[in-house]
Design goal:
The chain is an alpha/beta fold. It contains 21 helices and 18 strands. Strands 8-13-12-11-10-9-14-17-18 form a 9-stranded parallel sheet, covered by helices on one side. Strand 2 and strand 3 form a beta hairpin.
Length: 581
């Protein structure tokens, strides 16, 4: 983005009706940001022309202006709406603060003002919390009059952030549907490892600050400098992604830690016996077949909400982490959380090398790969071929590197691939010569600072699982009851023997049951297990059209579908919890 415009003049001038209007002059011309006749009336007309959701709207507005348009917009928003205001100019904001009273806007609970150059990075967290696949269609983007002409590059930047967020939302939704069943099943199975496993929080700040962390991904460029990595062993903490393990072991390099998080990650990445003895940062929902193979310390990374709720009970709440789509993103989050002040990336190409996607000349394809190919800047300044999923990982790195700037030095020693903006380019040999001088025994640090559950905590964990088993039994009964009621009412509707005046009573009853189920710890597993069914069913309810009777029929059918899935999930997950006991 262009930042502050040069040679900009900001004025507030009297309008014909006695109010003031905002005027901005740049080298491109002079722009009235409001009507110079009746600015309040024109602002009201502008707001009336917007298409907004009646409830739960999320409005992303480009430009604060002098507050007239924002104030009128707020009159059209419900109390549960959210307005994210993006002001691209600090100078405009400072002028508005001096010339206008916008305290009512800033104090409105629905409003969050972001000013480029001050707090603009907060938008990522805001979008993450405010927009979900279930309300994504309630988004509205609006532009304050003339802002697109005065600050066009800023608008392009703002719209790109929103587009990327929408890609993330729907990618996450599809991921939840695809992986949900495996996530729940793996989590329930892997509970057996909880008593002996460690937490990342136990070793935060325990590594020498002068020792760098080297994150090894499996991009094609890893073949260039993998042998060089041997010199860093014992003088850096080497963290390997699961896909990089085979290349490292082939070159007789045993990393200090490995990272795995995918619920369906193929166990073949852990086929070498050497990989079974490497301490493993893992999500508890990681593929259970890998955790069965793995024979040494497991360190939970970003635990599933089901486990997190128990750990909170015993005052061992896990830390929050930056969400990232790849295992390399996860490795970076872990290393930044651990307190490393220098993080080095190698094998992090995020691009093809010819048709090769991974070290060792491996080619890994994705569905509809040709449709996903695009180009980004490479480290050598020339465009490199990449894929849309890699672009999302790249943007994540760039965003997070910006957030930790000044606290963590990030070095890209991949020596190829896509340019990761914000990272310092060096060769791995230069990194090792300059920074790898202090001896560090990573395994000793882990052993001296981590702990398994105490006997008292193990007893509490057993109680927690027993509670969940009781909840599973109750869930089956309640879901069966809802299914029977919905089917009975569906038959009555078809026979014309059901009064629509009774539907509110049934809706309230189903709502009470759903609220009760959602309070259960066990529901956290069931909710994931049933995503493949529940997300389409909920979407159908949210988007249902037609008569009141037709929409009610969709409501009944969808709830019956969801609760049938709840019953099935409870039946299948219960034995896994019993085994964990």
């Amino acid at each position: 983005m262009e930042g502050e415009l040069k040679n900009i003049t900001i004025e507030s001038l009297p309008a014909r009706d006695g109010n003031q209007y905002l005027n901005i002059t740049t080298v491109a011309g002079s722009y009235r940001m409001n009507s110079n006749y009746r600015p309040l009336t024109e602002a009201a007309k502008w707001a009336e022309g917007l298409e907004l959701a009646q409830t739960g709207a999320v409005v992303l507005m480009y430009g604060l202006g002098n507050g007239y348009c924002v104030r009128e917009l707020l009159k059209h928003l419900s109390s549960d709406a959210a307005l994210i205001l993006w002001e691209p100019s600090v100078a405009v904001y400072e002028h508005i603060k001096q010339k206008y009273d916008i305290s009512d806007i800033l104090q409105d609970a629905r409003v969050r003002l972001l000013i480029y150059g001050q707090n603009e990075r907060e938008i990522f967290a805001l979008l993450d919390t405010k927009i979900h696949w279930s309300n994504a269609k309630k988004q509205s983007i609006c532009i304050h009059p003339q802002y697109d002409k005065v600050f066009p590059k800023g608008l392009a930047f703002f719209e790109e952030i929103i587009r990327n967020n929408n890609v993330r939302i729907y990618t996450n939704r599809n991921t939840e549907m695809h992986f949900g069943e495996a996530i729940a099943t793996n989590t329930a199975f892997n509970l057996r490892y909880v008593p002996e496993a460690f937490l990342v929080r136990d070793i935060v700040g325990k590594f020498p600050k002068e020792v760098p962390a080297i994150i090894v991904a499996a991009g094609p460029s890893l073949d260039k400098n993998i042998e060089e990595l041997k010199r860093a062993k014992g003088k850096a903490v080497i963290v390997a992604t699961d896909t990089a393990l085979r290349s490292l072991i082939k070159h007789e390099i045993i990393p200090d830690f490995a990272v795995v998080l995918d619920a369906k990650k193929p166990p073949s990445y852990f086929q070498n016996p050497e990989s079974h003895q490497i301490p493993l940062f893992a999500k508890i929902e990681a593929n259970k077949d890998i955790l069965v193979l793995h024979q040494t310390e497991k360190i939970w990374y970003d635990s599933h909400e089901y486990l997190k709720r128990f750990l909170t009970r015993i005052d061992r709440t896990p830390r929050d982490y930056h969400a990232g789509g790849s295992v390399a993103n996860a490795a970076f989050s872990i290393c930044s959380t651990l307190g490393f002040e220098r993080i080095v990336l190698i094998g992090q190409d995020l691009a093809y090398q010819g048709d090769v996607t991974h070290a060792g000349g491996r080619v890994s394809s994705i569905r509809a790969e040709d449709e996903n190919v695009c180009y980004v800047d490479g480290v050598d300044g020339k465009p490199v071929k990449t894929r849309h999923d890699w672009v999302q990982y790249l943007k994540w790195f760039e965003r997070v590197i910006g957030e930790v700037q000044g606290e963590i030095e990030v070095i890209d020693a991949t020596e190829g691939g896509a340019l990761i903006r914000g990272a310092k380019l060096m060769t791995l040999a230069e990194v090792i010569d300059r920074y790898c001088h202090t001896e560090c025994d990573a395994y000793r640090v882990l052993q001296e600072n981590s702990r398994a559950l105490s006997e008292a905590e193990r007893s509490k964990f057993a109680d927690y699982i027993k509670e969940s088993l009781a909840e599973a039994e109750a869930m089956e009964a309640l879901s069966q009851q809802i299914c029977e009621q919905c089917m009975e009412v569906q038959k009555a509707l078809q026979a014309g023997a059901w009064s629509l005046s009774k539907q509110q009573q049934l809706r309230e009853q189903i709502g009470r049951v759903n609220a009760r189920l959602q309070q259960m710890n066990f529901f956290l597993l069931v909710d994931d297990y049933t995503k493949k069914v529940s997300i389409p069913a909920i979407t159908e309810m949210l988007e249902a059209e037609g008569s009141e009777e037709e929409r009610f029929a969709v409501y009944l059918r969808s709830n019956c579908t969801i609760h049938e899935a709840f019953k099935e999930a409870a039946e299948l997950l219960t034995p896994l919890l019993e085994e964990a006991l």
